[in-house]
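tool_log.txt
---
The assistant was asked to compare two proteins side by side. It first ran the structure predictor on the initial sequence, then on the second. Raw inputs and outputs are pasted verbatim so the downstream comparison step can read them without reformatting.
(1)
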Amino acid sequence: MKINLGGKTRKVLYSMIKEGYASTESEAIRLAIFNFWKSRIKEEISVKKKLDRIDRQIKEGKRKVLNSKEALGVYAKYVK
């Protein structure tokens, strides 16, 4: 596979090598892809935990569930 990098992306790539995070361009790209994947997984887990917490609060009566009209408030009149 051939990848053409330029500008800021190229600078980041060479900075990763210069600072010792990677020893080759290929390794730097693999690290970047892995770290992107890792951050996405963490984000998904965080969102799931928050949604589970909200569901639990609703079941316990600690959080009010609004219908669409209540959520929109004064702007409800603009929605058909």
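(2)
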Amino acid sequence: MPSFADLSYLAAWRGVLRRSAAGLFDAVLPPRCLQCGDLVGGHGALCGACWSKLRFLGTPCCAACGLPFEFDLGGEALCGACSARRPRFERARAALVYDDASRDLILRFKHADRLEGAATFAGWMARAGANLVAEADLVAPVPLHWLRLVRRRYNQAAVLANAIGGAQGKRVVPDLLIRRRATPTQGHLGREARRRNVAGAFQVNRRHAQALAGARILLIDDVLTTGATAEACAKTLLNSGAKAVDLLVFARVVRHQ
């Protein structure tokens, strides 16, 4: 049996080899800013100029939907929309504001196979929703319909869910929800039209029905706009036995009320 000294020696050499391989990779493909392409210090990073333009979110915010507040109104304060009607999900949090500075970053990740930033984005999301991640029993992405998944080749929400769950030691169930009908894209639709568009579009995968019972689900998506898709998913999960559903997204639209 190898001695402790032998194991330590081997571990040290493995570290040297990993660093050498990383150095060779950086020499061939030097790390570039995820946004503008300028050279940066490490892969999956932003340059200082692009970083400074992003608007990161935190507290104070609406206790339900996470809408940022200018002033701290208390831990359980709600925005006007959530005071009038609470969403079906219990809490929503986002890492960034969806605006001109973040739009291209998100669209490249979503549509252009630019997945090298997934671990970075997942880290930002995990910090923004630390309580949600800590309390989650299961992590699941908002699903794509299989036709759209074939065209796009990956579900960006599933990529983020796997990165968050892997880093935080949470069980990820990528196919917990199934999108049973192909809904039209919602970019041009208003709030009520979006709700009608996704009504009844989701179902729980029967293979995971037992794991869902009594569980707190952390639902992952890329962008929160009106919340219609997230609410449709949350309604489906709650009706199928989940105890609660939280939502964690990369970015959210901020409409001041």
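---
observation on (2): DSSP finds eleven helices and six strands in the chain. The domain at 55-252 is CATH 3.40.50.2020 (Rossmann fold).
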